[in-house]
Please model this.
Amino acid sequence: ETGVTQSPTHLIKTRGQQVTLRCSSQSGHNTVSWYQQALGQGPQFIFQYYREEENGRGNFPPRFSGLQFPNYSSELNVNALELDDSALYLCASRAGTSGTDTQYFGPGTRLTVL
Amino acid sequence: TQLLEQSPQFLSIQEGENLTVYCNSSSVFSSLQWYRQEPGEGPVLLVTVVTGGEVKKLKRLTFQFGDARKDSSLHITAAQPGDTGLYLCAGAFYAGNNRKLIWGLGTSLAVNP
Model:
């Protein structure tokens, strides 16, 4: 148990639809990162939020967007879903932006796009 | 472009054997982390190495950071079925004021009883 929760656990959508995934950070953590992990591969960084502002982004198109709320919980929104968006979406929280801060991962949301 | 190559990609061994997983890059990292991930769960941090040449031990796991902070290895002694999982390395670096983390593709380890 890392104290990071994600919802829903599993989700099935069709091409062109929109999806919102949610993450509750570990208490006291003000930094949240979102990752996409395809089957059998390592996580790919989508973006990071620090104190409600995006402060880093990976190579993902603008249809991937996010929000962080005052309680530091976070959302990942994906518009115009494509088949290749099928993956495990992970969020990770940590207490700061230092290079050695430990980040704690949630269990992930498994998204399937048909 | 920062790249982190992890090898081997797959490893299937018998209980009691030793193994080493490698993580290599041409880039220098401020720190490097090793994670273990089980099916249906998120990665769990095993260790963070920061100093070039650093060696850290976690029971039967030994982690080493290269002197130049470009590579790292994970050695498991006398592997057990409970060690089965996906082992991931992740290197941290700064792009301006932003801390970035790049990931290897992972080593899928199966330890057979």
About this structure: Chain A has a mean pLDDT of 90. The longest strand of chain A covers residues 87-94.
